[in-house]
Design goal:
The structure holds 2 protein chains of 2 kinds.
Chain A: E1 4-7, E2 10-13, E3 19-25, E4 32-38, E5 44-51, E6 57-58, E7 67-73, E8 76-81, E9 90-97, E10 105-107, E11 111-115
Parallel strand pairs in A: 2-11
Antiparallel strand pairs in A: 1-3, 3-8, 4-5, 4-9, 5-6, 7-8, 9-10, 9-11
Chain B: E1 3-6, E2 10-14, E3 19-21, E4 23-26, E5 33-38, E6 44-50, E7 56-58, E8 64-68, E9 73-78, E10 87-94, E11 102-104, E12 108-113
Parallel strand pairs in B: 2-12
Antiparallel strand pairs in B: 1-4, 3-9, 5-6, 5-10, 7-8, 8-9, 10-11, 10-12
């Protein structure tokens, strides 16, 4: 149980285009999901907290107009990178907290974005 | 505020020798602590978690960690390293404010030498 999927697993796009990444909780409901960004050989950086039915909460320094987050249902959150540029190339990972009460998060497999 | 420090950015061991990856945390309360492993270009896999039950926590693939409150440590160990253990390891403390946020350590890259 507690499986989180991401789609696509990798994407290449041209500079100036927008890219949407989906995060789904497959066998549980998630009113909250998290989006992380990871640069090569670095740790995960929390970008934002996605909240079902309300606006996302962005971490300091993350451009909310650049990284649009929509939590459309209890099992789906999307991250759209708008007007992507090469510096947006990164590994994007989502997660969702489980229901065990121990604050454990379950991570998606990640999406590799390359902007040409 | 909570924080987590991974003391070594890189650790190299020979195959068959013990592994020790160090993690210290800072928290005003009894925290939830986790160790995750990440293989190249892969997502995160949970190795083990401490959630205020037993202080010695056993995880997958022979890993274990001991929660030591007096030392504010949660070091990860394995008696005998295998080549497949080569990966990035992250120590994580969970925010206790109810937001479920994770606070990640900077990671330790484990290299296993043949």
């Amino acid at each position: 149980g507690a499986v989180v999927s991401q789609h696509p697993s990798w994407v290449i796009c041209k500079s100036g285009t927008s890219v949407k990444i989906e995060c789904r909780s497959l066998d549980f409901q998630a009113t909250t999901m998290f989006w992380y960004r990871q640069f090569p050989k670095q740790s995960l950086m929390l970008m934002a907290t996605s909240n079902e039915g309300s606006k996302a909460t962005y971490e300091q320094g993350v451009e909310k107009d650049k990284f649009l987050i929509n939590h459309a249902s209890l099992t789906l959150s999307t991250l759209t990178v708008t007007s992507a540029h090469p510096e947006d190339s990164s590994f994007y990972i989502c997660s969702a907290p489980g229901t065990s009460g121990h604050n454990e998060q379950f991570f998606g497999p990640g999406t590799r974005l390359t902007v040409l | 505020a909570q924080s987590v420090t991974q003391l070594d950015s890189h650790v190299s061991v020979s195959e068959g020798t013990p592994v020790l990856l160090r993690c210290n945390y800072s928290s005003s309360y009894s925290p939830s602590l986790f160790w995750y492993v990440q293989h190249p270009n892969k997502g995160l896999q949970l190795l083990l978690k401490y959630t205020s039950a037993a202080t010695l926590v056993k995880g997958i693939n022979g890993f274990e960690a001991e929660f030591k409150k007096s030392e504010t440590s949660f070091h990860l160990t394995k008696p005998s390293a295998h080549m497949s253990d080569a990966a990035e390891y992250f120590c994580v403390v969970s925010d206790l404010s109810g937001t479920y946020k994770y606070i990640f350590g900077t990671g330790t890259r484990l290299k296993v030498l043949a």
